[in-house]
Task: inverse folding
């Protein structure tokens, strides 16, 4: 397996005399929502969006994502003064040291960004996920306690298969599988709770290749015997267009499922 570029340093290259840390679940589903606030979980997590701006997103799909994120911004901001962070697969914000648009609190900011960014190029899913998560995992590695680092939900909005393949053997360096396996191992070695990092892939449009790619990601935890940190929402004609509610519902469902997974792994703690 290839390691992601600029990956965090290894935790310890020598065998440790300390016992392995058992992941602990510090949240339960009662923390996620209530009858008065279905999105209470937004208080507890950092929310980061990675938007596919490849050429296939031109047109209705681009406007669909723009509208959904603009609708979602005030919901997130009402729970987190820091607002939301948006990154793109290809476009880099030259005015920001991390290349993203961070701390967005106003829907008009979102609309202005989408008007200024024109979809182009490929779908480099893996490298952009690494760009976002590597700094987070460095902070997590350096922390004395996982509870010192706020959990993260990375939401990837994409309409197509990562790619295109660039290697002579036809393999695809843009597939996120190696990076996800790597990060799952880091979380396990750190003893991080099951909800520490979640990656939610949400399909925009009905591309069959994208649907197959998401199906593959759904089964990574069984294929590699790793923690399940990935959730996918595939195209459903009955769902209609993408909406803020659909995104938040998908993310909440993913967090809830990881809490269940963590409870069973941790002996119900």
Result:
């Amino acid at each position: 397996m290839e390691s992601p570029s600029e990956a965090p340093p290894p935790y310890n290259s020598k065998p440790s005399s300390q016992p392995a840390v058992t992941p602990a679940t510090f949240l339960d589903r009662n923390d996620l929502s209530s009858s008065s606030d279905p999105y209470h979980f937004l208080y507890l997590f950092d929310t980061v969006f990675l938007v596919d701006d490849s050429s296939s997103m031109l047109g209705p799909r681009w406007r669909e994502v723009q509208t959904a994120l603009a609708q979602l911004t005030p919901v997130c901001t009402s729970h987190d003064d820091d607002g939301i962070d948006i990154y793109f697969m290809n476009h880099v914000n030259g005015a920001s040291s991390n290349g993203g648009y961070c701390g967005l609190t106003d829907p008009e900011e979102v609309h202005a960004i989408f008007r200024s960014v024109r979809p182009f190029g490929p779908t480099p899913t893996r490298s952009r996920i690494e760009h976002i998560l590597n700094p987070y995992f460095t902070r997590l590695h350096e922390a004395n306690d996982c509870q010192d680092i706020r959990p993260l939900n990375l939401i990837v909005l994409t309409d197509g298969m990562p790619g295109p393949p660039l290697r002579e053997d036809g393999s695809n360096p843009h597939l996120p599988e190696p990076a996800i396996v790597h990060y799952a191992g880091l979380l396990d070695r750190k003893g991080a709770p099951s909800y520490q990092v979640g990656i939610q892939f949400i399909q925009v449009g009905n591309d069959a290749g994208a649907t197959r790619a998401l199906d593959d990601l759904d089964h990574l935890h069984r294929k590699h015997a790793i923690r399940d940190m990935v959730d996918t929402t595939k195209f459903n004609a009955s769902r209609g267009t993408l909406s803020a509610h659909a995104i938040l519902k998908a993310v909440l469902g993913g967090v809830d499922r990881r809490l269940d997974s963590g409870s069973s792994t941790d002996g119900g703690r």
The two ends are 33 Å apart (CA to CA).
